[in-house]
Design goal:
Length: about 120
């Protein structure tokens, strides 16, 4: 009897939902726009600046870190000369393989450390 009661309860809860008119994309957009407040960027360079708050060396290190994380130096060195289509394809394939291999090694190391924590070795 409890199965039927829970089924009836579910039917009662969802009874009115099927009869509502679906919202148009414009209405959905308007609802989402009201709930979120997005601020336009101040200028095209927003997010690309590193503010100097005292130590110039520290600001330079932060800039270098940000550039390295975004792979800007590698991109600059690659764009110094033209790269043939086949060479580019091989380089991208190699980079993809290195990423996959590093990820698999990382997963194996985590597995080994988990097993060791359990006291197997």
């Amino acid at each position: 009897m409890s199965q039927w009661a829970s089924l009836q309860e579910t039917i009662d809860r969802t009874a009115g939902t099927a009869q509502t008119k679906p919202k148009t994309p414009d209405e959905i957009w308007a609802d989402r726009s009201q709930s979120n407040t997005f601020h336009a960027p101040a200028d095209p360079f927003t997010g690309l600046r590193v503010f100097v708050t005292g130590d110039l060396g520290e600001a330079f290190r932060r800039l270098q870190t940000r550039l390295r994380r975004n792979r800007v130096p590698q991109e600059v060195s690659r764009q110094k000369r033209h790269e043939k289509k086949g060479v580019k394809r091989r380089r991208l394939s190699s980079e993809r393989w290195r990423r996959v291999f590093a990820n698999e090694v990382r997963k194996k190391v985590q597995l080994v450390s988990t097993i060791r924590r359990r006291g197997a070795y």
